[in-house]
Prior knowledge:
CATH class of the domain at 338-545: Alpha Beta
CATH architecture of the domain at 338-545: 2-Layer Sandwich
Number of strands: 23
Mean pLDDT: 89
Strand order of the largest sheet: 3-2-1-4-5-6
Strand content: 5-15%
Radius of gyration: 31 Å
Distance between the termini: 71 Å
Structural class: alpha/beta
Number of helices: 37
Amino acid sequence: MPKEKLFLLDGHALMYRAHYAFISRPLINSKGVNTSAVTGFTRVLWDLMRNQHPHYLAVAFDLPGPTFRHEAYEPYKANRESQPEDITSAIPYIHRILKGFKIPIVTKEGFEADDVIGTLAKQAEKEGMQVYMMTPDKDFGQLVSENIFLYKPARMGNDVEIMGVEEVKAKWDIDRIDQVIDMLGLIGDSVDNIPGIPGIGPKTAIKLLKDFGTVEGLLENVESLKGKQKENVINFAEQGLLSKQLATIDINVPIKFNAEEYRLDPPDKEMLAEVFKELEFRTLATQILGTDETEPVHKPTATQGSLFGNAEMSASVAPTPLPSHSIATKNLENTSHSYHLVDNLGDCQALAKKLASEKTICFDTETTNIDPNLAELVGMSFAIKPGEAWYISIPEDRVDAYAIVDLFKPILEDETIVKIAQNIKYDAIVMKWYDVEVKGLYQDTMIAHYLLEPELRHNMDYLSETYLKYKPVSISSLIGKGKNQLSMRDIPVEKVSDYAAEDADITLQLKEYLFPKMEKEGLKDLYDTIEEPLIKALVDLEFEGVNVDANYLNIYSKELGTDIDKAEATIYEKAGVRFNIASPKQVGEVLFEKLKIPYRWSKTKSGQYSTDEEKLAELSQEFEIVNDILRFRGLSKLKSTYVDALPKMINPKTGRIHSSFNQALTATGRLSSNNPNLQNIPVRTPEGARVRKAFIPRDKNHVLLAADYSQIELRLIAEMSGETAMQKAFIEGKDIHRATAAGVFDVPYDEVNREQRYRAKTVNFSIIYGAGATNLSRQLNLKRAEAKTLIESYFKQYPGLRLYMDKTVADARENGYVMTMMGRRRHLRDINSRNGMIRSGAERNAINTPIQGTAADMIKIAMANIHQALKKSHLKTKMILQVHDELVFDVPKGELEEVKLLVDDKMKNAIPGLKVPIVVDMGVGEDWLEAH
């Protein structure tokens, strides 16, 4: 007989987690009350009750005042900031909601909630119960046993994580559960200000515990240690033992577990209705009470995809409310479906014949790798109507695999059949490795949702739970996570079949929901003319990859290593002491204590000096050692992140690097890349720019062509604002920064000096990003009043820009979104926030997004058009990179002149009919640096 389940919730931890999940977009109701903590806590509680069906439930809270740990160690938790006022005000509401659910609150003076939960868990285990401790706190791992589990709530699209003995041991890489306490004793815990032993991090602690078992065992064998480690363990032995004591959860709190007190009974709906009405929780009232028990409120305006889903909130305006992420009650077990495993040649032939007669099919691939250029095909799934799907298992043997794939090749290559998929770019690249070109119109549910809600998540599980209220089988439930993760090929085909068929089925259903919605909101044309053709261009671009000179990078790495060593020696000489330059703490102590360099900022939460790049840059002109430290950091990062990392990213099958371009990530519409992130390759320093020299043509018969939009965002703001003076400068081919300086500083165009042009250039680009006087003063090292005067002079010269910016913000307030020239939308749900800082951020986004977004649309259109033109002309030139406003091509030398004309035309005329001329700078070279 299954054991009864007791859930013990860490109230404060869950409440804080909820509050900070919405910290950038707090949930404010019409009364101005921040309901983030209450909303998130209630939703987690309700999800737990609906999905886990606990028999018993209680919530433990910390009480104000010191505990036995403070008495043992006064600085315990002293680094924590005072409790935010919004959390303090949320506690009474949470207590009322728990009372309405008839869930007991458990506390004990002098003890923390951890101790209360630990004591109750051990007592309940003795009574034969299965106990789940619901908390994000890793320390609870020390309590896990055969019948006590750590239950970490879902977060950011990840599933709930339930950890038993083996999972906790694997997580910490320890041999016994009780070693969790020893780990914390050695490494400390910065959150609780537990010091640990200096110099011992997680990796070292793991090794020491494998050798000595416990902190005490380590101290008994200290003579076997060497050097600084031995010195630290001897000097901080008592601190290590104290840290272990502080980290130990007390399981002997003087409280008694009484099962009947914790039994979950039906809620007091009247009490819940009252508090929900007060907080304006309409959706929760409907879900929990079965009816809307609250008064109407203003339309929702501010939320984000988060660990708690999208919750109710209100402020002043929201033309497009966020989707309600109510609980997904449907799943594979309780929903009617007809999924078929196709595992023989005859059935494959019959399915291929059936699919060939369809006008639209949904398909998905199952593979062995998230990198499509390394993946092996494990299977394909197809769906043509909701509730029915087929899964075809693909053999590992390449010859046998081709025999199956070739049956479906005519269907996938049929241009008259529409192909539906979730992230079809991945599937199309995988299929190219099996000599299949996926043709026809692409209907990608990920991209469709991105256009509708660019700032939310777009993975299939999230979309399914949000819009279909259906919880799909998670990939982690099949293959696991972390170092013990299996390959899809290791899973029994019967299990994979249902998972894969479900993916195709759900994607088809999402398409039927999202595409009509996209059309209704006027975004279908944006999908058809920009995003869909771009997918096909990116498929070929990523499949092609780029050639990288690994030998050059190895030589350059050694050169950088020498430069880093020299920089290190220089720093030590100027500091008069050796220290860890990679340690922000030690850098702060050397600069601001030993060398007495003035420190003008507040310290970090842990009481350390802040030594980030922005702050050190302000000191670098005045203090040489600061400039040396910045150089050391820059060179070290360049070496580790790019010069040493790029050769490891070379695909063993192709000998090339295949960067992945993300079409559904940025809120503005710009592409981003990863593996490697090409956008972040530093080019402003000579050392950084040299990384580009490693990117080379296919062979000696090819060259690289780089084509870069010149000042595209300034040209677009001139176009979109109708600012005549700026348009005139561009039309006349003037240097826009010099022309701006001439007007701002009231000097003739030909007499503008270098400093004036620099300041004008800074203002030009700062205005695009909505920067004010404070920000500009920091950039130009001016007094705020001087920066304010500079901005006023700027808008006096370009009054059309000010009118445009004011109108853009006003329209955003009214509509709740801004648009690019091509109709791409970005919702600005915080544009009317009562929080000035949040509102200002939304206003800056309102100004910048139409400009940056239109530039993004422009290069996307150019990429798609160039891709189509190259294919149509049967040219062998390949588009291989896109970075910011630049495209890079691998061009046969014989095609160079023709391709230069083609690229120039497609880039300049991506958006036809503009008044402001578009300029494209081109370069050709034997490597990317030379071409750029």
